[in-house]
């Protein structure tokens, strides 16, 4: 199946994706076969249902949010390019590409990794995490044994800690600032097999 | 007397077991069995015991029979019972010596930053060894393997295992295993073979009678990186956590490899190289698997047992720490019993149980465990290094061969470097985070050898290993070289290479939350990408842990708490504790970078925490079982803590808290909102402040009563209260008080007041020294500055005013740390002075409802009239009741509405509300005043 799937992928596409995402040729073909196996409708694009069929995602507390992150606004299909573009956020930063091209920010840059995480919180895409948005995510991550009040105090404290301009929200800049001591490059990367 | 040594004594009991483990079949080494003196000790101690026992009985009779005592001489009043107390006495003296040595080293801070402690201890050991040698012509003390493996090593490994950062350890498990297994094997074989080659080439003297097997054996014991040395040196270097965990993890895990190789070679040497069959090599490999996996399993089994036991210690909190020590130690001993890898067993027991045990036991037990473990480990480490030094001064065991020593040194350094580079090259193909060149340099250079190697080489059997003395000498030189030279130079090296240092800070709540989210994201992405990677499996493990393990091993009340909530509570408690330690000035950004408690060498703030916890218990309690005044049911304590925290701690109505300092310095352009928050905070602080003054005012009152001037009682009560708060806030206002003070109180009283006040005052009086913290101080402080200058300003010459002035401009923050104790004392004083009044202390408050309720309830909301803002001065006004009340609230009212300009350095350093510092703590950090009253009477666990 892998070979059949990769044969559907044209060399030009691979080159383009390679350029855009930084994945290697073998990684792209490997991920394409994965993409293809997820694509039950065989229409070259994944729908939300395709993602939801992955059993582990069903028990991942942030599963739905992460699935949403694959879809651009208003879209309910994602093609292989988009799929790869999202996954590219999690490619580890290689030594040799650290200062390759300062003008074009690679998808796996620190900022983009953080932006991906930020978007998970920021439901209404106003570039701010409000208290409610934070509470929703917290609620997903904790069990039912935590009362709303407790969760609220966590959220309050979180916002208080991060908020510097006093709008009681966490903007993306504040988000970056509050995580500046965290090794995001490491903690938001996974090792894609070669 | 000196002829009885610690080593000899303990070796009688301990030596045998350790010998069994490391040298199967080998006869006990001479070092271990100083039979004559050991048995002599026992013989002499037996009569001594009898003597001492018999001495107890005749005592009453001889006292009566004074005459016979004098003339007959049958009973001596003072007897020399050395042999009776000898063993514990010598041990205690050694411990004392080691601890004092530690203190002395840390006197000079500049010195200790350059020279690692381990170096100094070895040097001290050398000196002591020299002294003993000169005194008794032969070396009596040395690092005894039995003592080392059974008592000293477990304390260090237990500490390391229990406090091992588990996540970090498992994140780097691949690298650790690689270095520990492959690296150690590589080092051992290469060193052994090359030494043999060099010997064949004639570089090593012919007197060194050793064949290939002997050199391989020596290579095996000399090549293992030593956990004690690594801990001692790396602890002071502060390289980044990943680097540290890799080197340290390696030093722990390689124990299995070392044990097996050592044992295999010993048996090979014993039967003679010619008789070794092929099957024996396979047995060796099988033995490695059994020793390592078996050791790990034993550790994990004990971890489960320990965690399970602590589930049920709810009613016997006092023995919780004991369980931790016992079972962790038992894991070690059990592994020794089956000749498995004891270090692995203990390490995994610690790592495995930590999460559950910490969740199950009470906060106090946690502190106790932490403290005891660190103390024991620290003292064990000290003793090990001192004894290493002492052992070196023993010419009977030395046989110097320059060729062997130089070659060994070169080989272990070179092969370590080659091994690290080679393995890193392979590892980097698989690692997400690559190990850079500088990491490799540090790892190669950080391959320190230590006491384990020494103990192993001492255990060698001279009958089989003819060159033992040479090996001992070489091992000592290698250890000294690695610990002293490399230990000394690694710090400059790390600095020079600009190796990333560890940040040494606790995660903030944001980091806790977001990193958890990251983990979920990564697990999900791996699932989407169809990779069964690290995160996938970790996620699976966490599911399993949550669904089964935690359910089994954690208390129900704890299990139902989310980890996130626990983390949140931890952070809050940490902040709250540091509030106290910093004199109440926590609301700054400084709280995000609290000094870590992780370092074993120093935990300054921990000291205060324990003080705190100790002070927390009220009064004298003779029941050993009871730590708390209230039975400390976990549920209860948690609901309470939680309630308090949820309701109170850092409920951020407005953000800005972390900016108070800055804003306050530039006061003028402060936003209105800021002020409101600040004021709200300060109000609560002031209230807690006032309530503290009850203690003092009670005391005053009783003093008053003695004077018989009941009429003025009310005033006296009020005054000190105001005194404190103002003094604390602004020296400018202080002059007002002295007048009254002078009029009403004796000098002694003033002194007491001053004592308390100034402690609070000092803490925050130093804006330059601690610019961040003082900002947060209090808004109330402002009130004095706006208040009209009091006519008594001139009275600056009052004794206690002078005290204020004479304070050094910068008082170390240490000063603030005494606060809780001081308050406690103040409280006790007030209690004792109140006894004459025969009123139960706890219910004092209702007796004086008016200042309390008045200020607490009405002050914040009450619109003050401007006329009353003028500070009532002079005695006439003091006499009248109403003005006084107004005086009372004045600070509050002022703070409520005045805009705050200059922030006087001050500490609204309140003070324990009533006797419970916890309450004080709460009220400090929190706002709602209404809550604080009911809570204040219950001691809370924090």
TrEMBL record, chain A:
Database matches in PANTHER family: EG:114D9.1 PROTEIN-RELATED (PTHR46002)
Organism per entry: Silurus meridionalis (Southern catfish)
Gene3D superfamilies cross-referenced by the UniProt entry: EF-hand
Pfam family, one: EF-hand_7
InterPro entries linked to this entry: Calcineurin_B_homologous, EF-hand-dom_pair, EF_Hand_1_Ca_BS, EF_hand_dom
GO cellular component terms given for this protein: cytoplasm; nucleus; plasma membrane
Protein name: EF-hand domain-containing protein
Domain of life: Eukaryota
Location in the cell: Cell membrane; Cytoplasm; Nucleus
UniProtKB/TrEMBL annotation, chain B:
Gene Ontology cellular component terms for the protein in this record: plasma membrane; recycling endosome membrane
Region (Disordered): 24-70, 683-732, 763-800, 840-915
Annotated Polar residues bias: 774-785
Alphabetically ordered keywords of this record: Antiport, Cell membrane, Endosome, Ion transport, Membrane, Signal, Sodium, Sodium transport, Transmembrane, Transmembrane helix, Transport
Domain Cation/H+ exchanger transmembrane: 96-496
Biased composition range(s): Basic and acidic residues: 708-731
Protein's UniProt keywords contain Ion transport: yes
Parts of the chain that traverse the membrane: 114-135, 147-164, 176-198, 210-234, 285-309, 369-392, 398-421, 442-460, 472-494
Low complexity composition bias: residue spans: 24-40
Superkingdom per UniProt: Eukaryota
GO-annotated biological processes: regulation of intracellular pH; sodium ion import across plasma membrane
NCBIfam families to which the protein is assigned, alphabetical: b_cpa1
Family to which this protein belongs: Belongs to the monovalent cation:proton antiporter 1 (CPA1) transporter (TC 2.A.36) family.
Protein's UniProt name: Sodium/hydrogen exchanger
Taxonomic source organism: Silurus meridionalis
